[in-house]
Amino acid sequence: MTFSPLALLRSGDPASIRRHWNETRQRHPTCRIDVSGADLGRLDLGKEPVELLDCRGISLRGTFLLLARMQKCDFRASDLSELDAFRADLRYSDLRYCNLRGAYLGKTDLRNTDFSGADLSGADLRETDLRGASLVGAILVETYLDGALLNDANLKDAVLERTRLRGCDLTAIKGLEPLQLRTCVLDSPATTTAKSLLTAAPTHLDEKSSQGNRS
């Protein structure tokens, strides 16, 4: 089966896009959609965002979504590696089990988005709004979260290794355990809450300090 996903995404107003896209996916559920490298920036087509698209399992590897407005969309198990979604609006979207390795999501609105089980290794989420987001079981190895808003975000069982959290308020994060912060890069001095969390687990920052004292 052949159809143009890009043509569908540019087929009219947001309501028409949602109807045409989802109807096509229902008629052809086994068709693999690959829009890798496409430029879908500013995908709002008017005052209203594109909502409720069924984007499960598609490839958006290296795609440009700068300033795109795609709220409440289902991206489960999709390849979003190296995606560039600077300042995009992806609120309330489902990104469970997505590959987001190396993605650029700087200053993106990701409030109440579900990243459970997603791989965000090496991704750049600096100054991103993650309030209310679920990062349960997410992989955050060498992920940049400097300046991100993390109020009410859930990091239960998330894998944090050399994760950068400078400028983040750790006081309202859910599910955060001391051992998760062991190798994270934090502010110096850390917040009061961060200090209390870290008493049971030395951080990368502490290790540097101790090395400096020995030298």
Characterization of the model:
The protein is mainly alpha-helical. Helix content is 17%, strand content 5%. It has four helices and four strands, in the order ααββββαα. It has a two-stranded parallel ribbon with strand order 1-2. It starts with a helix and ends with a helix.
Strand line-up in the sheet with most strands: 1-2
Q: How many E-type strands?
A: 4
Biggest sheet details: 2 strands, parallel
**Could you give the order of the helices and strands?**
HHEEEEHH
Strand content: under 5%
| pLDDT < 50 stretches | none
Distance between the termini: 67 Å
Backbone structural class: mainly alpha
Please tell me how large the radius of gyration is: 19 Å
The global form is elongated
Helix content: 10-25%
- Number of H- or I-type helical stretches: 4
Mean pLDDT: 81
In a nutshell, what does this entry contain?
Helices cover 17% and strands 5% of the residues. It is mainly alpha-helical and 215 residues long.
